[in-house]
Write a structure and sequence with these properties.
62% helix; Nucleotidyltransferase, domain 5; 453 residues; two-stranded antiparallel ribbon
């Protein structure tokens, strides 16, 4: 009940904050914004009107129509409520904020859910939506418009670009894999198709008959240098052996078409990799200017790029007072359905920032391998019921709780000895064969030393 009370208090605070003010509801669109004004009692003033998304619409038509309805009004007497649909609201919200007006944002989901409350009609019109935006804002169902520093805005934009480029990269990798699975499927067993070693080889060879003529001695030094010693002559020999027994589809007479397609995917992948590196370096540089970067990277398993992305997606971590606020922003908070003696299934809502939700999942998978606190929670759940993804998502709350505590206390992470001992005991219960293998290795080493002596 305590959590619900706190949530209701925030809702009441938002309602109280704009009580006694006239609310101007905006339903944004690409070409025209619909505007509706309601008074302090929720009664619509005049008729709804539209303004063009242009300099004249913003600077002339809007204020002329509002002046006819409201007369002369002070900035403190009105609040603009804008539906935060897609990115259509950003330009107008920024314009109003720069002029010193209070701006609040209403979720499109709230508008959709309340559409039927007006005379039990599910119809959708622009004037109706503009009215619902104003009415919901007056009822406290809104989020405040926040302005951030240029550095934070830059970091946030780079996070979005990084995420989109990563998706494009994954699509191209899947296309490369699909092509190689058709013409030389055994190649994928020897090397990952997206790494630099693979791209170098595919630029010179791509069909099995090409790899049959590969000179191992000539190419060994090149792939050693490209892969930093991870691949050598053994890799080339395996590829060559598979090439002689490949079951790939023959492309006799089609080689030039396959070559052009392959070159297109490889060039795009190289270009995206270069841009991802540039964007990643700039993100890390901007994140280091904040006071959160050093705290986040001190946690074992959190990389520099993950820390920079978390700062960019959350904008300002000081604004969060509880880790559940980040969960709610990401959509990883639990959707509860309890009534009387009935307790429904608890699942995550998924209503939030999808990029942040994915990032939290990635960070949890990284820290679940190295961070005792997170791994303990993960192993306990795995021992009860094995479900990797579900248990990783459940363990993310531990990670966020620790990160919020570190940020509040302004200190880096330190491993606790009691947690390490607890984890060791839990690892033995979870995987008892692992300890047996260790003891057998020690015995074998002792025997070999005795024989050598």
């Amino acid at each position: 009940m305590k959590k619900k009370t706190v949530s209701y208090k925030r809702h009441q605070e938002r309602t109280r904050k704009i009580s006694g003010m006239k609310v101007i509801g905006i339903d944004p669109a690409k070409e025209k914004h619909q505007v509706t004004v309601i008074d302090e009692h929720g009664i619509q003033m005049g008729s709804s009107f539209s303004i063009n998304v242009s300099h004249k619409g913003f600077n002339v038509d809007l204020w002329k129509r509002l002046g006819k309805m409201l007369g002369k009004f002070r900035k403190e007497e009105v609040v603009f409520a804008i539906e935060s649909s897609c990115d259509l609201w950003r330009v107008f919200a920024g314009y109003l904020h720069n002029r010193g007006y209070a701006v609040v944002l209403v979720s499109p989901l709230v508008t959709y859910k309340t559409r039927s409350t007006i005379n039990n009609d599910f119809s959708k019109t622009d004037p109706k939506d503009a009215y619902l935006v104003a009415e919901n804002a007056q009822g406290g169902k809104y989020n405040e418009y926040m302005s951030y520093t240029p550095e934070i805005n830059k970091l946030h934009s780079l996070c979005i670009a990084h995420d989109k480029l990563t998706k494009d990269r994954n699509r191209i990798i899947l296309r490369l894999r699909a092509l190689m699975e058709e013409i030389f499927p055994e190649y994928l067993k020897c090397v990952h198709v997206e790494i630099q070693t693979s791209l170098y080889l595919l630029e010179k060879y791509f069909l099995p008959e090409h790899f049959q003529k590969l000179d191992v001695d000539e190419e060994e030094w090149n792939i050693r240098r490209i892969s930093n010693g991870n691949h050598n002559a053994d890799t080339l020999r395996k590829i060559k052996e598979h090439a002689h027994k490949s079951i790939g589809v023959g492309k006799t007479g089609e080689e030039d078409g396959v070559r052009i397609t392959l070159d297109a995917w490889i060039s795009q992948l190289r270009l995206i990799n270069r841009h991802l590196k540039e964007i990643g370096n700039k993100m890390i540089e901007l994140a280091k200017e904040t006071g959160f970067f050093e705290i986040l990277v001190s946690v074992p398993g959190i990389s520099d790029i993950s820390a920079a992305r978390l700062i960019g997606e959350c904008r300002d971590l000081k604004l969060f007072t509880h880790y559940k606020q980040i969960e709610k922003m990401a959509g990883s908070n639990l959707r509860i359905s309890d009534s009387g003696k009935y307790n429904g299934m608890r699942i995550i809502s998924r209503l939030g920032n999808r990029r942040l939700l994915k990032l939290i999942y990635i960070m949890t998978t990284q820290t679940a391998r190295f961070m005792p606190d997170v791994r303990i929670k993960f192993l306990r759940r795995q021992m009860k019921r094995k479900s990797y993804r579900r248990n990783i998502i459940a363990s993310s709350s531990i990670l966020l709780r620790i990160l919020m505590a570190l940020i509040k206390e302004k200190r880096t992470y330190e491993i606790r000895e009691d947690k390490v001992k607890e984890l060791e005991k839990l690892e033995l219960k979870f995987n008892p064969d692992k300890e047996k293998k260790k003891t057998s290795r020690k015995k074998n080493k002792k025997k070999s030393l005795i024989k050598a002596a």
